[in-house]
Description:
The protein has 6 helices and 12 strands. The chain has helices at residues 34-44, 62-91, 106-131, 149-166, 172-196, 268-280, and strands at residues 47-53, 135-140, 221-224, 241-246, 261-265, 291-295, 307-309, 314-316, 323-325, 331-334, 346-348, 354-356. By secondary structure, it is of the alpha+beta class. Strands 6-5-4-3-12-11 form a 6-stranded antiparallel sheet, with no helix packed on it. A 4-stranded antiparallel sheet has the order 7-8-9-10, with no helix packed on it. Helix content is 33%, strand content 14%. 27% of the residues are buried. The longest helix is centred in the N-terminal third of the chain and has 30 residues, at 62-91.
Amino acid sequence: xxxxxxxxxxxxxxxxxxxxxxxxxxxxxxxxxxxxxxxxxxxxxxxxxxxxxxxxxxxxxxxxxxxxxxxxxxxxxxxxxxxxxxxxxxxxxxxxxxxxxxxxxxxxxxxxxxxxxxxxxxxxxxxxxxxxxxxxxxxxxxxxxxxxxxxxxxxxxxxxxxxxxxxxxxxxxxxxxxxxxxxxxxxxxxxxxxxxxxxxxxxxxxxxxxxxxxxxxxxxxxxxxxxxxxxxxxxxxxxxxxxxxxxxxxxxxxxxxxxxxxxxxxxxxxxxxxxxxxxxxxxxxxxxxxxxxxxxxxxxxxxxxxxxxxxxxxxxxxxxxxxxxxxxxxxxxxxxxxxxxxxxxxxxxxxxxxxxxxxxxxxxxxxxxxxx
Length: 372
């Protein structure tokens, strides 16, 4: 019988009762192998090992080496996938630009690298367990037991024996592959933290600015339609509304996706109601006659809050049914939104066209943790 294949006889003299110890057993006996300690610990826990046989009774065979190379390849592939994810996450161009470019591949590259990493590490572990770990069948009865020093020694030997069964000590290829291949996996978890430190959102302060940034009383920015034509007050019907943009380059592109604004022409009594409430807050000069401009971006999840109920003076967001009162500074009155729609200060220029005399005075869109 091979020394690596053990048949473990059982009998009353060899398997003491649960919770008892063998009086003449010395775990420090140099003649005992680690597996002898494992076997004794198993017996004291009421475990009967009915079968135990290494996958390769003779170490170092060509078949074993072939399995080792396969596992090493899978762990190396895991490391390459993890490193590819980190490199792509940090250095791959991700900012949206129109047309065919590398930014379109940002998400697919991240998904591919992570897929390779997870698939390779899973196959590597499964292959190691199936092809290298010994075959073992054990039967254990559940019971309570108070540990002592001998039990601790036996438990420690059992844990070290598990390392021996992995064979990582005598398989340097797998040891190096596991170290080099699995270490980068930790970087994947850290990648979002590292990536978040690369670009400071306040330089420029993009979360607090829109396409109307730079507008002032001296240098206002005109409101324009989608075809970039300017707008006069009489072109918006009473009780009507239209979507307007800043008169700048790229005004209707994703670069300025936070700039679409709803221009609403209120009825006289509704405009008077809103003006009185704005005056109470010191913001009476934000309207141009009976026209008011609110951000079109819902403060809940960023959907277009563009469904205007003329009779009730409410703006509705179609995504999650938030509702905002136009005659009360666009305060939320229903739904999940908790913050009002920002108002754009507007006036008429010398030619009678509607202009923005400043940017929004508060961030548009959904809330974020750095918002005052």
